[in-house]
Design goal:
Cytochrome Bc1 Complex, Chain D, domain 2; 7 helices; mainly alpha; elongated
């Protein structure tokens, strides 16, 4: 019986040769409007200069996004004195005044910060970074 098993397997495999080829799958759909790019290439592109030009609209957008995503931990001044610290959270590092370093901190989720890179597109991240720079301006 075991001598016939290889021959039987060959017959079964030979029968599989006549199947038609599967059609090609359709190309992937483009991402919807407003989708935030993800991955290493998207992060490097978002960090790359030149940043959007600094104007009143960019700073206002940065202030609004900072109030939503950053103030609870970093406080209104960016010094790490937000409401979560007053309620017992360990001290939080102040935000760097340099916009490029702030962008890196947002993108890399440095020091265990709450990740926001998937919620803010590149322009919004630059807006927050430029707003943080104004918090420390003399």
């Amino acid at each position: 019986m075991t001598r016939f098993l290889p021959a039987l397997m060959l017959l079964v495999l030979a029968a599989c040769d006549g199947w038609p080829e599967s059609p090609r799958p359709p190309p992937p759909a483009p991402p919807p409007d407003g989708a935030v790019p993800r991955g290493d290439a998207a992060r490097r592109a978002a960090l790359a200069s030149p940043a959007p030009p600094v104007d009143a609209a960019l700073l206002a957008e940065g202030a609004a996004r900072y109030a939503i995503f950053c103030t609870p931990c970093h406080g209104a001044t960016g010094r790490g004195d937000g409401v979560v610290v007053t309620r017992g959270h360990p001290p939080i590092a102040p935000l760097p005044p340099d916009p490029e370093r702030t962008m890196a901190a947002i993108a890399a989720n440095l020091a265990g910060a709450h990740p926001v890179a998937d919620r803010l597109d590149a322009r919004q991240r630059w807006a927050v970074a430029r707003h943080v720079a104004t918090l420390r301006a003399p």
